Amino acid sequence: MELRFDSTNSGDLLLGDVVTLGGLITEVKRTASGERQEFVCRLLDRSATHVAVSYKSTEARRVGDLRLPKGTVTYGYFWLDRPYNVYHWVHPNGGTLGYYVNLADGVVFGPHAVEWKDLALDLLFSPDGRRVQILDEDELGTLPPGLQAKAKAARTLVLTYRDEIVAEVAARTAHLRGAGHQGTGRGITRQKANPQR
């Protein structure tokens, strides 16, 4: 197989018609209100069932009680068979800041994008996974009844298996960082910027 440079895709390395590891891929978040938010990330890992990306913040942000400094690296993990995705936030000095779990539905892996529907509720775990903040609970009522039920079931699942989820994500990030992936995503956003980044 031959790698080629495709100048029409912002410098993505393509193999056939799929972004290869190290290339740029777009995370597409669809909200309950129908808003579409896009984030250009670096593809770190991909299989038939999961995708891992990285994104380096260009400004400081606050999420719940957590302050994310400029230069925070987000390692994002997406699965086809799980009702959530996880952002592992890593301080520029290398320490874990926290784990942000988006309850999700309708995850799709395309050749150049990871798309998912936000189920409003989010869970923010401390670096050790012991403390949790449940965020955006007030938005749950904006979802149709079927999606509300999915969000509640996903919240229960994540809270039940939080130790395993945090351990898995920490191990995946350690592996990716050991492979030299230190958050090289460009941090380019399209549409509305995601306040959770």
Textual characterization of the structure:
By secondary structure, the chain is of the alpha+beta class. It has one domain (3-188): FomD barrel-like fold (Beta Barrel). Helix content is 17%, strand content 45%. The strands form three sheets. Strands 4-5-6-9-10-11-12 form a seven-stranded mixed β-barrel. The protein has a three-stranded antiparallel beta sheet with strand order 1-2-3, with no helix packed on it. A hairpin with a 3-residue loop joins β11 and β12 (113-125). Mean pLDDT is 86; it is low at 1-16 and 184-197.
Question: Based on DSSP secondary structure assignment, what is the total number of beta strands?
Answer: 14
Helix coverage percent: 10-25%
Poorly predicted runs = 1-16, 184-197
Alpha carbon gap, first and last residue: 35 Å
Strand order in the largest sheet = 4-5-6-9-10-11-12
Total domain units: 1
Gyration radius (Cα, Å) is 16 Å
The dominant shape is globular
CATH topology: FomD barrel-like fold
Q: Can you identify the CATH superfamily? A: FomD-like
The CATH architecture name reads Beta Barrel
CATH top level?
A: Mainly Beta
Report strand %: 35-45%
Helix count, per DSSP?
Answer: 2
Largest sheet: 7 strands, mixed, barrel
Look at the helices and sheets and give the structural class.
alpha+beta
H/E series:
EEEEEEEEEEEEEHHE
Q: What is the average of the pLDDT values?
A: 86
List keywords for this structure.
globular; FomD barrel-like fold; disordered N terminus; 14 strands; 197 residues; alpha+beta; 3-stranded antiparallel beta sheet
What's the helix and strand layout?
Elements: E1 3-5, E2 13-15, E3 18-19, E4 24-30, E5 36-46, E6 50-56, E7 61-63, E8 66-68, E9 73-79, E10 84-90, E11 96-109, E12 113-125, E13 132-135, H1 145-160, H2 162-178, E14 188-191
Parallel strand pairs: 4-12
Antiparallel strand pairs: 1-2, 2-3, 4-5, 5-6, 5-14, 6-9, 7-8, 9-10, 10-11, 11-12, 12-13
